[in-house]
Design goal:
The protein is an all-alpha fold. The longest helix has about 35 residues, at about 230-265. It has two domains: about 1-135; about 135-265. The chain is about 75% helix and about 0% strand. The chain is built from nine helices and no strands.
Length: about 270
């Protein structure tokens, strides 16, 4: 991919991300928040690819965008938890009120950090940026580096939640850069397309995401004191059920990740 194409892709990705940013508030529609986070990850992955090939030189996402991403994460976590509680535990009114409060905090965090000036400034920076070529083989090297990183995270006898989080981040980098390359520069995929278990990686990343949702639910419940005896008793039961499920889920995840890495390493 030559420098003109690299710049074209980056500018287009930033324009798309900025458009999604503008559509999040004030409605904070579930799909709008989700699409912003997806677009952010695509751009972040591609910028990482560029910097890795160019000795850490290149565009970086401004801190303001990262704050928006974190705020959107707070909003999305609360939206997912709210939907789960309404569907599965509608009688936990006090807990639902706590989740609603966290949702409002996430929205306020977004509004506090959102700035149209920041969006325009970053887009202008990208337009004026002197891009680099990404020659054939760069994507394959990036993917191998990410697989090595995933392997490092799983070297521990008992990987912790941070290890799993980093594995998911590496998997998303592989998925996002591969899909972008397929869309924007198919010729760059010739040497790597058949070596990437993209569907399996995607399923694995989704599974880690589900595990994180369960773990967040357990953490939220652990910090919640129900005022009524009936609700308190139900919360205690849910915590016990969720804790057992989280432990079992983590064990299965670790085994599945190691199996996938081993299978990919043998290719």
């Amino acid at each position: 991919m030559n420098s003109d194409k690299v710049k074209e892709v980056v500018v287009a990705q930033i324009a798309a991300l900025n458009e999604l940013c503008r559509g999040v508030s004030p409605g904070f529609d579930v799909e709008s928040v989700h699409q912003f986070r997806v677009s952010f990850k695509y751009l972040r992955s591609f910028l990482r690819l560029i910097r890795m090939h160019n000795e850490d030189k290149g565009l970086r996402l401004p801190e303001g965008y990262k704050k928006l991403y974190r705020a959107a994460g707070l909003v999305r976590d609360a939206q997912l938890e709210s939907a789960h509680v309404l569907q599965n535990e509608p009688d936990l009114q006090n807990y639902h009120a706590l989740v609603a409060e966290r949702l409002e905090l996430g929205k306020k965090e977004w509004d506090r950090n959102f700035s149209t000036t920041m969006l325009a400034k970053f887009h202008k920076q990208a337009v004026n940026w002197k891009a680099f070529d990404l020659p054939e083989g760069v994507l394959a090297n990036f993917i191998r580096h990410r697989f090595d990183s995933m392997q490092t995270q799983m070297d521990s006898r008992h990987p912790d939640d941070e290890n799993l989080h980093l594995v998911r981040k590496d998997a998303k980098d592989i998925i996002n850069t591969t899909l972008l390359a397929e869309d924007e520069s198919p010729e760059d995929m010739r040497t790597v397309r058949h070596d990437i278990p993209l569907n399996e990686l995607s399923k694995m990343a989704d599974e880690i995401g589900e595990y994180n949702n369960e773990r967040n639910r357990l953490q939220n419940l652990s910090g919640f004191e129900a005022p009524s005896g009936r609700e308190r008793k139900r919360v205690q039961a849910i915590k016990k059920e969720t804790g057992t499920r989280v432990k079992k889920h983590k064990k299965g995840l670790v085994e599945a990740i190691r199996d996938l890495l081993l299978k990919t390493h043998k290719k």
